[in-house]
């Protein structure tokens, strides 16, 4: 995993040894998001509602192992199936503090390179995005490596 961080954005490059469709579906299918999202390794997702279309919104609520609940929400701005996904990012607990996520997926031979950028994070949020996303992606990696992949098609 390659990481970069400055005051306004983080970039994480990660290789998943899974087909691009599996990684795409992990970001876009609520039932799969329920299985990996959230930074706490022992946390759980409570709900994931997605309207996957430009201008559509999402809202994901998850709970840490200490029972602290978090809800993130945003609006999709860019959707290129199996390739790019862009959306705004906001915490329900920090209204008006809006940042932006762009995910680029590059297919390889049974692997997927993910270039993840979370920009405009600034210093207005109390969340440590770099640590949070790194932990989240470890959970995603374990799910994909378990051989339990999304449905084809």
Structural commentary:
- This protein has about 150 residues and is α+β, with helices and mostly antiparallel strands.
- The protein has helices spanning about 20-30, 30-35, 130-145; strands at about 1-5, 10-15, 45-50, 55-65, 70-80, 85-90, 100-105, 110-120.
- It is globular.
- Strand 4 (about 55-65) and strand 5 form a beta hairpin.
- It has an 8-stranded antiparallel β-sheet.
- About 20% of the residues lie in helices and about 40% in strands.
- The two termini are about 30 Å apart.
- The longest helix is centred in the C-terminal third of the chain and has 17 residues, at about 130-145.
- The chain has a single domain, classed as Alpha-D-Glucose-1,6-Bisphosphate, Chain A, domain 4 (2-Layer Sandwich), CATH 3.30.530.20.
């Amino acid at each position: 995993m390659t990481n970069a961080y400055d005051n306004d954005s983080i970039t994480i490059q990660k290789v998943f040894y899974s087909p691009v469709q599996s990684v795409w579906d992990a970001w876009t299918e609520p039932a799969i998001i329920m299985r990996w999202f959230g930074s706490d390794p022992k946390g759980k997702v409570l709900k994931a509602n997605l309207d996957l279309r430009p201008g559509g919104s999402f809202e994901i609520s998850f709970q840490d192992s200490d029972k602290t609940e978090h809800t993130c929400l945003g609006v999709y701005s860019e959707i290129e199936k199996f390739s790019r996904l862009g959306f705004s990012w906001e915490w329900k607990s920090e209204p008006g503090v809006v940042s932006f996520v762009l995910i680029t997926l590059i297919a390889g031979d049974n692997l997927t390179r993910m270039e993840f950028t979370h920009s405009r994070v600034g210093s207005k949020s109390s969340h440590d995005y770099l640590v949070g996303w790194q932990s989240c992606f470890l959970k995603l990696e374990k799910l994909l490596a378990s051989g339990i992949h999304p449905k084809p098609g």
